[in-house]
Amino acid sequence: MDEMEQGDGKFSDFVAVFAKLICTSQEYVRAAYDGERSVVSLRDVARCVKVFRWFGEFFARTIGEKAPRPWKVADFFNVDERAREYVRKAMLMSLAYCYYARLDQKHRKGYGRALQKEYLSLQEPIEWVELGVWTTRRIPKYGPRCTWLDLNARMFGQTVDQVMRSFVRHVHLGPGIALNEALLENLFMIMVSIVNQIPIFVVGKPGTSKSLAMKLITSNMNGEASESPFFRNFPSVSLFSYQCSPLSTSSGIEQAFMKAHKYKQQSPNSIVIVLLDEVGLAEQSPHLPLKVLHKVLDEGGDYSLVGISNWALDPAKMNRAVHLFRAAPGVEDLSRTASGMVQNVQLDGFLRSIARAYDMVYNEQRQRDFWGLREFYSTVKHINIVLSKEKGRSLDAEVLMDAVQRNFGGKPEELAKVLDIFFTSIGLPLQGVKRKGVIELVGDNLKSTDSRQLMLLTKNGAALRLLFGATRLLAHKSTDVIYGSDFPSD
Predict the structure, then answer these.
(1) What is the Cα–Cα distance from 213 to 280, expressed in whole angstroms?
(2) Do 13 and 51 sit in the same domain of this protein?
(3) Matching InterPro entries, A to Z (predicted)?
(4) Residue 1: predicted pLDDT
(5) Angle, to 10 degrees, between the axis of helix 210-220 and the axis of helix 181-196?
(6) CA separation for the pair 48, 98 (Å, rounded)
(7) Which of 55, 66, 110, 241 is the most exposed, having the fewest neighbouring CB atoms within 10 Å of its CB?
């Protein structure tokens, strides 16, 4: 009896398997959040089905119709043999989008195994049925289902990574930007969300490429004018950004949505995005501005919502949107990211040691998150720029001292410890290496066009005297000075 006669290829069997895997996903996420029931709901089920359908239509249009054995959307939903590879991909990516993306690294590994266990249980017969009195042959009443899915934990992880990369490889990143795991996931998840008008909250520490992902999406998704043919399959995007703060108000957030709605009416063929930047800060506002999100998230609109935050919002808001959680990267991921950023043979051998030193500094700093990923990336970039300008020069104590001083400032009482960690990790002698003074460091920053933006924190306007006084770091004729107000809360 062939597979189709057994019912293994019927869409109804696939739906039954898919439904079981969704139920398993719901329970797994609840368990990962200490049994909190509200972290998932029927909203997640609806989103999962919606995204599955979108993947099916997208695969049919961009791949199926151009395949050696062409297939269409109808073949996809009939689980035709020609389309099964992409039915599998669509199912796995829908589960990854709705459930896997919100988990931390430990629970992500367990999620793939949970799917595999549930799938294998569906291959076992529920009970056996005798064929007749005069024979000992038996058949399963409800036996193996959708064996062609061949689902296992390893294949799940490989498929998710492969499909994400097949989307993101079309993004023009620009020089000095490495496609690490964080940026890969951010780009893919936001891209799928805005195209389907599904609200998404991207949660991660500073430096986990959240804002960078939004910048790249808006610069690459230009509709028919897109540089990449891939993005010509999508409408152009327009961004309306609202910077949240502890002083945000409901009216301020509502105005951002009103502007987006008005623009959408004038440009119906474009994707309009409302970006709530640092949305977690708005939760600290006494005005409770995020209450307006309940209505917006429930009723939807003609725009897409992206929220960026350093920490998770309350469950009542989080379960109304897709949730991408980005944990702080480990030493291995930091090393790979740095390698993609610099592509410098002279520096390659030191990258793991620099990553290890940063990891120690980050975990041992007295004030949590005072230094973060941006300090690591900027340190690597600074060293790379110096070594690139002087061909053949390798990382030495002078270059390392300058890079650490320039990027790990703000805590003079901890500088000695930070320097000791970096020099010890990389294996360079610290004793006898000259440290630069504050004025010299500030001057170097102002002269360089590749430096980070400089923030000088002083009392009573001392910074102006430092910059324009005897040091002559800046000249009044070539500098614009903007004063902020002295009003409270400004």
Answers:
(1) 18
(2) yes
(3) P-loop_NTPase, RNF213
(4) 32
(5) 50
(6) 6
(7) 66
Burial class (CB in 10 A: 0-12, 13-18, 19+), 217: buried
Tell whether 152 and 222 lie within a shared domain: no
- Measure the CA–CA gap between 34 and 30, rounded to whole angstroms: 7
User: Looking at the chain, how many residues does it have?
Assistant: 490
By 3-state DSSP, what share of the chain in percent is helix, strand and coil, each rounded to 5? 55, 10, 35
Is pLDDT of 119 > 80? yes
DSSP-assigned beta bridge partners for residue 352: none
Using DSSP bridges, classify how beta strands 128-130 and 138-140 pair: parallel, antiparallel or unpaired. antiparallel
Same domain, 192 and 220: yes
Between CA 227 and CA 222 the distance in angstroms is: 8
Would you say residue 461 lies in a domain?
no
Give the number of C-alpha atoms closer than 13 A to the C-alpha of residue 340, restricted to the C-beta side: 14
Residue 433 is classified by DSSP as P
Tell me what the pLDDT averaged over the chain comes to: 90
CB 317 within 8 A of CB 305: no
Q: At what angle do helices 11-32 and 105-121 cross, to 10 degrees?
A: 140
- The whole-angstrom separation of Cα 281 and Cα 290 is 10
| Paired tokens of 218 | 């808006």
pLDDT for res 5:
37
Q: Residue 355's pLDDT band (boundaries 50, 70, 90)?
A: very high
Judgement on whether residues 315 and 337 belong to the same structural domain of the protein: no
For residue 138, give the H/E element and its range: strand 138-140
Residue 161 pLDDT class (50, 70, 90 cuts)? very high
Answer for the pair 17, 146: CB distance below 8 angstroms, yes or no.
yes
The contacts of residue 59 (CB under 8 Å, 6+ apart) are: 76, 83, 86, 89, 90
Query: Can you tell me the distance from the alpha carbon of 39 to that of 26, in angstroms, rounded to the nearest whole number?
Result: 9
Query: How many domains does the chain divide into?
Result: 3
* Helices and strands, counts by H and E, the chain: 20, 7
Which pairing describes strands 200-204 and 237-243: parallel, antiparallel, or unpaired?
Answer: unpaired
For 34-93, the pLDDT digits (tens) are 998 889 999 999 999 999 999 999 999 999 999 999 999 999 999 999 999 999 999 999
Domain that holds residue 195: 182-327
**For the purposes of burial, counting CB atoms within 10 Å of the CB of 286, is it exposed (0-12), middle (13-18) or buried (19 or more)?**
exposed
Residue 228 has pLDDT above 90, yes or no: yes
CB 287 within 8 A of CB 248: yes
The model's confidence at residue 136, banded by pLDDT at 50, 70 and 90, is: low
Is 284 in the same domain as 365? no
The predicted model gives 341-369 an average pLDDT of: 91
Per-residue pLDDT tens over the stretch 176-218: 888 999 999 999 999 999 999 999 999 999 889 999 999 999 9
Which pLDDT belongs to residue 487? 60
Q: Note whether residue 65 is domain-resident.
A: yes
pLDDT top residue among 393 and 272: 272
434 with 357, same domain?
A: yes
